[in-house]
Request: fold
Amino acid sequence: MEITVNGEQVTLEKNSGTVAGLLQTLGYIGETFAVALNGDFVARATYGETPLNDGDSLDIVAPVVGG
Reply:
């Protein structure tokens, strides 16, 4: 299964991924980021039950501190 994460192609096992699983695999820990799946905000409470499908686009946005 191919999805796009922040503009980069990622290959996952077919129909085996959730947002939470992918975030863990990519090393995203804590609560300092937001996620959009196919342009729609995903609530943190639903990461574990939000499936990823072939062709999905996931944007992970972390705040930038400084100026």
The first helix runs from residue 19 to 26. The chain has one domain: 2-61. Residues 37 and 58 are 5 Å apart (CA to CA).
